Amino acid sequence: MSCDDGKLFVGGLSFDTTEDVLEEAFCKYGCISKVDIIKDRETDRSRGFGFVTFENPDDASDALTAMCGKHLDGREIRVDRAGKPGTRSGFRGGASGGSGRGFFRGGSRGGYGGERSWWWWRKELWWGWRPKLWEWREELWRRRWRWLQEWWWQRRRQWWWW
């Protein structure tokens, strides 16, 4: 059992919510070992989220199901299991890209990921628009040709009656 098994993330908190209020709301579900409300370093004001750690992970799962979507200090809160710092999914690229190396140390330079290198993306950006250009040109010529055919048939009908 990990020490973070009973740790819950609580989001959507009011800026006026204190740790005592948060502990009072969650203490119904079990024994709480720690309550943290994350604050801004400069203003010392709540950032709107916090963590509640239960001594028993089963109590944490009970609190998770019961408190998610409830109102606390006039705001609807979101409760979820607190994940480890590296378990987030999604793209988090940086200047050195996905390889973790420096900028010019070989390997992938950008955060593009996969088998495609920065050179592939450069070529794609340069040549990728060209097929589209041909489609636009063809459509333009089709429209001109249709207009010319209509014009010709209109003139022919007019000349026929003269």
From TrEMBL:
Localization (cell): Cytoplasm; Nucleus, Nucleoplasm
Coiled coil regions in record: none
Positions of the RRM domain: 6-84
GO (cellular component) term, any one: nucleoplasm
SMART domains noted in UniProt: RRM
SUPFAM superfamilies in the record: RNA-binding domain, RBD
GO MF annotation list: RNA binding
Entries under InterPro entries matching the protein: Nucleotide-bd_a/b_plait_sf, RBD_domain_sf, RBM, RBM3/CIRBP_RRM, RRM_dom
Cited Pfam families: RRM_1 (PF00076)
Keywords tagged on the record: Cytoplasm, Nucleus, RNA-binding, Stress response
Name of the molecule in the record: RRM domain-containing protein
